[in-house]
Each structure stands twice: as C-alpha cells, then as structure tokens.
Amino acid sequence: TDEADVVSQANDTIFGLAAYVYSENISRLWRVSEQLEYGMVGMNATAISNEVVPFGGVKQSGVGREGSKYGLEEFMTIKYMCLGL
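The structure assignment produced for this chain is given below.
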C-alpha cells in the first residue's frame, strides 16, 4: 500500500482521539500527520499528552479540548466593549 492508502485506512473510522506515525523521514511525518483526522498525533513518540497540551479528539471521540489555554477557551466568552469619550 502507498501513503495515500494508509492515510485513507487510518481515517476510515468514526473515532479520532489519537494516531501515531513512525518514520525516519521528517517530511513524511509532517505530511501524513497533517492528513490524519485525529485530535492528537504522536510523531515518533508514544507519550503525547500532558497537562499543558490541548487534549481532545474529533469525530465520535469528542468535541473541544481539555488542558492548556484551549481548554479554558471552551468556558470563556469574548466580549468587545467600546466607550466613546
């Protein structure tokens, strides 16, 4: 199978929490990772989550993020206010 087939098979699921890509080719790591429909992608790494990274998935694996500033933004509303003087 070629790279496009692998990405297609990986994305052919209703889930999308985390995926992992291993390669010696850095360009391939980035290219494949960008095409994967997952909330988190480990590139040559298994420990991809900690308290400062945005944890979360896509598809049936959840909406939104936990942790990091992105997790806080889920609970915040931005309001613009302008006072004329």
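Interim note for the steering committee: The first strand starts at residue 18 and ends at 21. Residues 3-73 form a domain with the Aldehyde Dehydrogenase; Chain A, domain 2 fold (CATH 3.40.309.10).
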